Amino acid sequence: MSRKNQTLGEFIIENQSSFKYTSGELSRLINSIRLAAKVVNHEVNKAGLVDIIGAAGDTNIQGEDQQKLDVYANNKFIQTMTKRNIVCGIASEEEDDFISINSQDENHQNKYVVLIDPLDGSSNIDVNVSVGTIFSIYRRVTPVGTPATIDDFLQKGNQQVAAGYIIYGTSTMIVYTTGDGVNGFTLNPAIGTFYLSHPDMKFPENGKIYSVNEGNYIHFPQGIKNYIKYCQMEEGDRPYTSRYIGSLVSDFHRNMIKGGIYMYPKSSKNSNGKLRLLYECNPMAYIAEQANGKASDGFNRIMDIEPTELHQRVPFICGSKNMVEKAEEFMRNA
Ligand code: AHM
Ligand code: MG
Fold first, then answer.
1. Is the pTM of this model over 0.90?
2. In this structure, which residue's CA is closest to atom 7 in ligand 1?
3. Relative to the CA of 123, which ligand 1 atom is closest?
4. What is the bridge-based pairing of β-strands 209-211 and 241-242?
5. To test the ligand 1 pocket, which listed residue (214, 242, 248) has its Cβ within 8 A of the most ligand atoms?
6. Which fold has domain 8-198?
7. Structure confidence by residue, pLDDT tens digits, 126-163
8. Quick check: CB of 121 below 6 Å from ligand 1?
9. 132: which of 32, 73, 167, 269 is 20 to 30 A away, CA to CA?
10. Residue 105 contacts by C-beta under 8 Å, 6 or more apart in sequence?
11. How would residue 33 be classed by pLDDT, with cut points 50, 70 and 90?
């Protein structure tokens, strides 16, 4: 039973029993993500003080090297999950290869792997625009007690047991699903506690916002070009409004609340688009579907794509169901 003002900690405990594998391991894992989120949030909020406390590459007053925020976030999430010994493997957009945890320890019984984009949209940091963390959780497919392998990470999105994002915006939020709807928690920075502020989030079926980097228009496939023209046409509830932050988590979050579509199509420059299937598209697709939205590569459901490599890219169209289906129709007919 969720209720507004419940803390994230309370929510995790109360909902633990509704999760089909109730060992408490997943709850502990989400708790550790919550903890790392607070630490990263604290650092992200100091980004504007760079002239005062030093830029990346400088040494700070304690003699510590200042890290780039995406490197910092990457280290924090990995450290938090590794030290608590609650996952058997982590893959990060910032790392070339996956990390197998405790592979020397034959007694380790951890069942989950995490895939993470520690600080997505990090080019927005310098201009004080919202960024986010995206995470995706799977049960391992290899036997418990053995080192995690690539097979544990290359699973279809439809095998996810949880996914979520943290948005470091005008307020900081964690939004996540364990397959039973989507809930959003807002951080009260004064006391460092996340409260349930957005229970049972849903995409409106229709929306009036389209989000795409139109600077790339000339390189887009004909179906996307036609859909963009459709969005701009004076007819019915159109033209739609164009909103593109260039920070996936923020564009997605706004579209989920207001109704809209986000597109990062393939182009003549990037044959698979830009976004990563495992760190960005699958988790956002899972959240979208759990919130009555839809996610597609233009033709197929994102979560049904068979991954072949960790850093695989894929075209991504995601948001309000009817809008995504309309875009797919334009793709089919182009
Ligand atoms: P990143 O993982 O390097 O930060 O790239 C992902 C980001 C998304 O958040 C955003 O939607 C997109 O890249 C913006 O790309 P572009 O500047 O090409 O429009
Ligand atoms: Mg990213």
1. yes
2. 121
3. 4
4. parallel
5. 248
6. Fructose-1,6-Bisphosphatase; Chain A, domain 1 (3.30.540)
7. 788 999 999 999 999 999 888 999 999 999 999 999 99
8. yes
9. 269
10. none
11. very high
